[in-house]
Structure formats: structure tokens, C-alpha cells
Design goal:
Helix content: over 70%
Strand order of the largest sheet: 1-2
Keywords: Cell inner membrane, Cell membrane, Membrane, Transmembrane, Transmembrane helix, Transport
Oligomer: single chain
Pfam family, one: DUF6691
Number of domains: 1
InterPro entries: DUF6691, MFS_trans_sf, Sulf_transp_TsuA/YedE
Family: Belongs to the TsuA/YedE (TC 9.B.102) family.
Shape: globular
Strand content: under 5%
Structural class: mainly alpha
Membrane topology: Multi-pass membrane protein
């Protein structure tokens, strides 16, 4: 295996990982919540009092990130070769799957691996394998180069996840220290 340095994009991958990791770290340190998009979105379906604002702000932040990105860079061309019915069925299946798995890749992948949860590590491996097999991602060439372990491997996608996990690991480490100090005061 050789690394495909021609297509490897370390700085955008690093920036993406930092932003994902910081979002997870800020949410756990400030709000005591795990970043799990399915849980955040699902919590809006049966909201608790005082629990709506931060969820809406988080979802709005995800949407605004794409809008801001599109102001500086061209969004990748996408073509969906499925009907609205198929898309709705697929969305429902993903929702059911995240309920059975007790979370999605953001919750298990970034926060669970950062907490060194064996269940989250196994779940993330299954999610990622199924995702690579079933779906095309934003840039199919990136995915193909990422999966080309025998040829010119592009580690950009792994880099995004690794950076986010490292920042999450630091946040959970800090959370343990804060909890220990709070317990010591009482």
C-alpha cells in the first residue's frame, strides 16, 4: 500500500476533524450532552421542556456550515438516482437502525470512541462498513481512493475521524477532571 499524496487533503481533513471534535467537546463540556445527530434530531420529535433551543441551534449550525462553505467553495455535484418514496423509506430505515444501535456514527464514532466504549467501537465499525458498501459519499473518488488499500490509498477520511476522536478524547478527559473536582468539593 502506498499513500496517494496527490489526492490526500490533510488540511481540509484536519479542519473538518477539528470542527467536528470541537462541536462534540463544546456540547459535552457546556451542555453535558453527547453529539449524536440522530438523538439530537429525535429529541425534537418528543421534546422535553427547556430541551428544544440547543437542539434547534445545533441543527441550524449544521445547515449554516453548508451555507457558509458554499460561499467560498463550490458544493460537489450530486445526483440522486432514487425516487422520493425510496428516499423516504431509506431515511426511515436509517432512523430505525440508529434506534436499534442506540445512536449514529457521530454519537458512537466521535464520542463513543473518545470514551473508549467497546460497544461504540464495534458499532462504528459496522456503521462504516455498511455505509461504504451501501452508499456513495459526497465525493465518490475520495471514497474509492480511501478504500484502495492495495493501491494508492488516500487517508483523508480516516484523518477527519482521527482528529475528531482526539479532540473528543481530550474533552472527555477534561470532563472526568471537572467531575472529580466537583465530587471533591462536596
Amino acid at each position: 500500500m502506498t499513500i496517494d499524496f496527490l489526492h490526500f487533503t490533510p488540511w481540509p481533513a484536519f479542519a473538518g476533524g477539528v470542527l467536528i471534535g470541537l462541536a462534540a467537546a463544546i456540547l459535552i463540556l457546556v451542555n453535558g450532552r453527547i453529539v449524536g445527530i440522530s438523538g439530537i434530531l429525535g429529541g425534537l420529535l418528543r421534546p422535553n421542556k427547556g430541551d428544544i433551543t440547543w437542539r434547534l441551534a445545533f441543527i441550524a449550525g449544521i445547515i449554516m456550515a453548508a451555507v457558509i462553505y458554499s460561499m467560498f467553495y463550490a458544493l460537489p455535484e450530486t445526483q440522486v438516482d432514487a425516487s422520493w418514496v425510496m428516499l423516504i423509506v431509506a431515511g426511515l430505515l436509517v432512523g430505525i437502525g440508529t434506534r436499534y444501535a442506540s445512536g449514529c456514527t457521530s454519537g458512537h464514532g466521535v464520542c463513543g470512541i473518545s470514551r473508549r466504549s467497546p460497544r461504540s467501537i464495534a458499532t462504528t465499525m459496522i456503521f462504516m462498513a455498511a455505509g461504504f458498501i451501501i452508499s456513495g459519499m459526497a465525493n465518490p473518488a475520495k471514497v474509492l481512493n480511501f478504500l484502495d488499500l492495495a493501491g494508492n490509498w488516500d487517508p483523508s477520511l480516516a484523518f477527519v475521524m482521527a482528529v475528531a476522536i482526539l479532540i473528543g478524547f481530550f474533552a472527555f478527559f477534561m470532563l472526568r477532571i471537572v467531575k472529580l473536582r466537583c465530587l471533591a468539593r462536596n
